[in-house]
Write a structure and sequence with these properties.
Layout lengths: L6 E5 L7 E9 L3 H23 L3 E4 L11
Length: 71
């Protein structure tokens, strides 16, 4: 999945109510440190590439668990 955007996942199974989970795009734990390192070693171009490609972001929650009600 693209790490630049948040999405809602929907799981369906015959005989069960659909379940869903929201997966958010968030800055990685070391995002600020990574950007600072890019500024020192990769310059503005490195920062721009990471921001554009989503390399500075992660998806949360990861892994995703969706519980279906099959009663």
């Amino acid at each position: 999945m693209d790490r630049k955007e948040s999405v809602t996942l929907i799981a369906r199974k015959k005989g069960c109510k659909p379940g869903q989970a929201r997966v958010r795009s968030v800055v990685k734990g070391g995002g600020a440190a990574g950007f600072a390192g890019n500024l020192i070693f990769g310059g503005i171009i490195g920062m721009g590439v990471d921001a554009y490609t989503g390399a500075a972001k992660d998806l949360y929650p990861n892994p995703v668990n969706i519980k279906l009600d099959c009663s």
